[in-house]
Design goal:
rod-shaped, disordered C terminus, 7% strand, alpha/beta
Length: 389
């Protein structure tokens, strides 16, 4: 595109003389008699590429015009300032504002042409750099999108692998893999309720699915035993926390590190009466404290061969108020408060199962008071089945 030259000077003879010189050199020119006219011309005509402008003019000075056009109208236009004797400080200021050159009156046609050509070459060079930058940005964006898509594929594969690993541990003790998925959803809900970021909440959601991975190391005759467990069998069952930690902890993956912590400590109690290490209070990692509440809630809600299911309202009451085996002091008070505020969301995640609700009706009171049965009591290390969750 041929660039027009804008000649700005309040003295008409000088303006006309400069214009004629430029026209003889083959340039298309536009004239402006003052700063306001110059600004208006640049705003209207996108073909103006260079402005040859006098510094000292009535009204807006050349410096004012350069500053306003560069800041508010077009940053790509080139400026060459014209100055008389004694105007060098102003010329320097013009260069600081973005002018490419200055000419001192009087100047020759060769000097004028050289300054214009140099300015136009600079504009073309800048446009080429800008185009290259835009191309690089577009390329980076395209590659970023591709990398993001690949990362999502890898992330999806990792999630599927985590779920498959968790289901491998759960399938002998549950009729589906929904239990482990629900634990993850519950954990994310509580983490967000505690003020965690979405990224951290998602991490604990994935990690919590592996809370019982250690059950892989528990023999079937203990895991599926319908009757009461012996002291030795309870000890074997409780060992699934250490086994799970041993399975997952060698990984350097951030999610697997969290999973190892949860696997080891999700049976610890806030009051120090849990296992395997009788940790108490904040000595229990927060992700394990979250998983503990989630695990108990799902255990209470879910039917097992050795116990019936509780309805949502009863399960919440047992966790918040306690019964003969479960106590509120088993849980982190902050997590317990968030659980109470978000219990309805956990119920939604669990989903309505008419068969469970029907079995729970009329049976829950005797179940929760019966020391011979095994429900949440076994989670907390009673003589009942330790894998009630």
């Amino acid at each position: 595109m041929e660039r027009k030259i804008l000649v700005v000077d309040d003295e008409q003879p000088i303006r006309l003389a400069v214009t004629r010189r430029l026209q003889r050199l083959g340039f298309d020119c536009v004239q402006a008699a003052d700063g306001e006219a110059a600004i208006e011309a640049v705003a209207k005509d996108r073909q103006i590429g260079v402005a040859l402008i006098d510094i000292r003019m009535p009204g807006k000075s050349g410096l004012d015009v350069i500053a306003e056009i560069k800041s508010n109208i077009r940053s790509d236009i080139g400026f060459i300032v014209i100055t008389g004797h004694g105007g060098f400080d102003e010329a320097v200021e013009a260069l600081r504002l973005g002018a490419s050159d200055f000419l001192t009156k009087p100047f020759s046609s060769e000097q004028l042409e050289g300054a214009i050509r140099k300015c136009l070459e600079g504009i073309c060079s800048n446009e080429g750099k800008l185009q290259t930058q835009r191309s690089l940005e577009a390329e980076v964006m395209e590659k970023t999108e591709r990398i993001s898509a690949l990362a999502q594929e890898v992330d999806s594969a990792r999630i599927e692998a985590l779920e498959s690993l968790a289901i491998a541990a759960e399938h002998r003790d549950n009729d589906t893999g929904e239990h482990i998925r629900r634990i993850g959803i519950y954990a994310e809900i509580l983490a967000l309720g505690l003020g965690w970021s979405e990224a951290l909440a998602r991490k604990v959601r994935l990690a919590a699915t592996l809370h019982d991975i250690g059950k892989i190391g528990v023999p079937d005759n203990i895991l599926m035993k319908p009757g009461l467990l012996t002291e030795a069998e309870i000890a074997t069952m409780q060992a699934h926390t250490r086994i799970g930690h041993e399975i997952v902890s060698p990984s350097t993956d951030e999610i697997m590190k969290v999973a190892a912590t949860i696997a080891l400590s999700h049976h610890e109690r806030w009051d120090g009466s849990g296992y395997p290490y009788n940790l108490a209070g904040e000595a229990i990692p927060i992700e394990a404290r979250i998983a503990a509440v989630c695990d108990v809630y799902d255990a209470l809600r879910s039917p097992r061969p050795y116990k019936p299911a509780m309805d949502h309202r009863t399960a919440v009451r047992v966790i918040l108020e306690g019964d003969v085996r479960t106590r509120p002091q088993h849980f982190d008070p902050a997590v317990l408060e968030v659980f109470g505020n978000n219990a309805h969301r956990l119920a939604e995640a669990y989903g309505r199962r008419p068969d469970v609700e029907r079995k729970a009706d009329g049976r829950i009171a005797s179940f929760s008071q019966n020391g011979e049965n095994r429900g949440t009591a076994t989670f907390f290390g009673s003589r009942g089945k330790a894998n009630a969750i």
